[in-house]
Amino acid sequence: MPPHAHPPHAPHTHAEGHDHGGHGHAPAVSSRNESRVLIAFGLTFGYMLVEAVGGWLSGSLALIADAGHMLTDASALALAWGAFRLARRPPDALRTYGFARFEVLTGFVNALALFGLTGWILWEAVQRLRQPAEILAGPMLVVALIGLAVNLVVLRILRGADRSHVNIRGATLHVMGDLLGSVAAIVAAVVVWATGWTPIDPILSALLSALILVAAWRLLRDTLEILLEAAPREAQPVAVRAWLLSHVEGLAAAEHLHVWSLSSGKTAATLEALPAAGTDPQELVRAIKRELAERFAIGHATVEILWSAEGEACALEAEVAETEALAAKP
Asked: Could you give the C-alpha distances from 106 to 31, 96, 163, 228, 281, in angstroms and in order?
C-alpha cells in the first residue's frame, strides 16, 4: 500500500524520543545537579548552626534571621537533592511521565517557605525597633564575614549546575538572599561598633526581607504556571500554530493545539494536522515534530492526522483504496 494510504490511526504517533537536539535533560546533567546540590547542602547546613549560635550570643537579629534563612536553604537543598534523585527514576505503569514534576513541587514549597520566613523577619524587626536589644558588634562581624565567604562558595557551586531547573533557581535565590543577609549583617555590625546605633540591625533585616519577597514571588509564579500546565512563554500556542503553518510544507491546518510544561525545560504538545492534497501524512508528522523540537524545544509531541470527510487526506485514502480494489479484480 502506498505511504499515503495508511489506516486512520497510523500517523497518530508520539515523538521519537524525548531528547531532541539537546533540549532534554540528559542523565549527566541531573547527576551534576545532584552532586552540586548535595555539596551546597552540607556547607549551608553546617554554617547555619554556626550562625544561629553566633546570632544568639551576639544578640543580632540580622544573624538570627540569616540563620533562619539558611535553615530554609538547607531544607530547600535537601528537598532539591531528593527531587533530583526521584526525577532520575524511569516512568512506570502509573506515572508514565516519570517523577520530573516532583522538582516543580519542591520549588513551589521553597517559594512558600520564603514567604513565611520573610514574614517572621519583618515581625521580629518591628519588635526590635520597639525594644532595642544589646548587640555585640565584634562577634557579629566575625560570623557575618565567615557567612559571606560560605555563601559565595555555595553560590559558585550552584551556578555550575543546570539553572533551567526551578529547583536550582529556587536554591540559588535562597543563597543570594543569604548573601545579601551576610552583607547586611556586616554593615550592621560595623555601624553598631562605630556608633552604637542598634536600630540599624532590624532596619537592614527588613530591607533584606523586601528583596527576598520579590524573588519568592517570581519563583511562586513560575512553579504555579508549570503546575497549572500553562504553555511556556517561548512556546505560546498562537505562535506555535503560526510558525508551523508557515514553515511546514504540506500542512493545510493545525487544530486543537495544546502546549504545556511537564517540568522545567520539558515541554509537551498535541495537535491535529490536516495535510494538503498529495502530502504524505508520515512525512508531515515528522516535519511537524522536527519544527516543534528545533524551534520551540518541544521534545514530546503527539501529532494526529485529520481524517475527516472534508480533509484532503481522507479523499486521497479513498481514491487509493478504490484504485487497489480495481487492480485486484480478475
From this structure: 18, 20, 15, 15, 41
C-alpha–C-alpha distance, residues 69 and 101, integer Å = 25
For 148-163, write each residue's pLDDT tens digit.
Answer: 898 899 888 888 766 5
Domain residue extents for the chain: 3-18+232-328, 27-227
Fold (CATH) for 27-227:
Alpha-lytic protease prodomain-like (1.20.1510)
Contact between residue 55 and residue 67 where contact means Cβ atoms under 8 Å apart: yes
Residues 6 or more apart in contact with residue 210 via CB below 8 angstroms? 118
Residue pLDDT, tens place only, 235-266:
999 999 999 999 999 999 999 999 998 877 78
* Whether the Cβ atoms of residue 299 and residue 22 lie closer than 8 Å to each other: no
Phi, psi of 232 (to 5 degrees): -60, 155
> What is the Cα 88 distance to its own chain's centre?
16
**Distance separating alpha carbons of residues 220 and 214, to the nearest angstrom:** 10
Q: Which of 209, 113, 111, 228 is nearest to 167 (CA)?
A: 111
> 242: which 3 cell numbers?
503560526
Give the containing element (helix H, strand E) for 1: none
Does the domain at 3-18+232-328 match CATH 3.10.20.880? Answer given as no
Distance CA 283, CA 2 (A): 13
Question: Half-sphere exposure (CA, 13 Å, Cβ side) for 80?
Answer: 35
